[in-house]
Write a structure and sequence with these properties.
Keywords: Signal. By secondary structure, this protein is mainly α. The protein has 2 domains: 130 residues, no CATH class; 43 residues. 72% of the residues lie in helices and 0% in strands. Helix 1 crosses helix 2 and helix 4 crosses helix 6. The N terminus is likely disordered.
Length: 188
C-alpha cells in the first residue's frame, strides 16, 4: 500500500514537471516569435523608449499566441490580455513570466507608459520596487503626474479667488475666460 502511494506521488510529480516544462516552452515560443522581443535578452526588461512597443507586442502577439495554444476566456481588451498573462503565470508559476505580468500590469495597463518616457527615474523605480520587488504600483503618477497635481492646486485656489462680480457683465465674461484658460492649462 505504501509503495502504491509513493508511486502515485512520483507519477503526479512527473506529470506536473512535464506540464510545467510544456508551459514554459509554449511561453518561450510565443515570446520569442514576437518581433519586438528579439532585441531583449532573456530576463531583460525593455527601456522606457521600447516599453510602448513591448506593451503592444504583449497584447497583440504574445497573449493571443498563448490563447491559441492554451484556450482561455479573452475579449481582446488590454485588461483581458493582462488577465490571460496572469492566469498563465498562475498555472506555470515561473519567475520570468511573473516579471512580464507585473511589467505589463504596472507599465502598460494601470500606469501610462507615456509618463515613463518623460521620467526615466520613475521607470527605474517602478521596475525595482514593483516589478522586481513586492510593492503595488497601481495608478502611480510619473513625469506629468506631479505637474497635473500642481495645476489642480492652482485651479482650485483660483476658483475661490475669482468669484464673478454679481453686478458686472464684464466681470462674468472675465471670470468665464479665466476659468476656460485654466481648464485648458489643466488638460495640456
Amino acid at each position: 500500500m505504501a509503495a502504491a502511494i509513493s508511486l502515485t506521488i512520483l507519477l503526479l510529480m512527473f506529470v506536473n514537471t512535464i506540464q510545467a516544462k510544456n508551459l514554459m516552452e509554449l511561453y518561450a515560443y510565443c515570446y520569442s516569435n514576437a518581433e519586438d522581443m528579439a532585441s531583449l535578452k532573456r530576463g531583460e526588461t525593455p527601456t522606457p523608449e521600447k516599453l510602448p512597443e513591448w506593451c503592444i507586442t504583449m497584447r497583440n502577439d504574445v497573449a493571443p499566441c498563448i490563447i491559441e495554444k492554451f484556450p482561455m476566456t479573452d475579449d481582446g481588451s488590454i485588461a483581458s490580455r493582462g488577465n490571460v498573462l496572469l492566469t498563465f503565470y498562475k498555472i506555470a508559476k515561473d519567475e520570468r513570466i511573473l516579471t512580464h505580468v507585473k511589467l505589463y500590469h504596472y507599465g502598460c495597463l494601470y500606469n501610462s507608459w507615456h509618463n515613463y518616457l518623460a521620467d526615466d527615474e520613475c521607470y527605474k523605480q517602478m521596475l525595482s520596487q514593483c516589478v522586481r520587488g513586492n510593492q503595488s504600483c497601481y495608478y502611480v503618477p510619473c513625469g506629468g503626474g506631479d505637474e497635473k497635481h500642481k495645476v489642480y492646486k492652482v485651479l482650485s485656489s483660483a476658483d475661490k479667488e475669482s468669484e464673478p462680480p454679481k453686478s458686472s457683465a464684464c466681470g462674468v465674461i472675465r471670470y468665464l475666460v479665466t476659468i476656460s484658460l485654466m481648464a485648458l492649462l489643466y488638460v495640456v
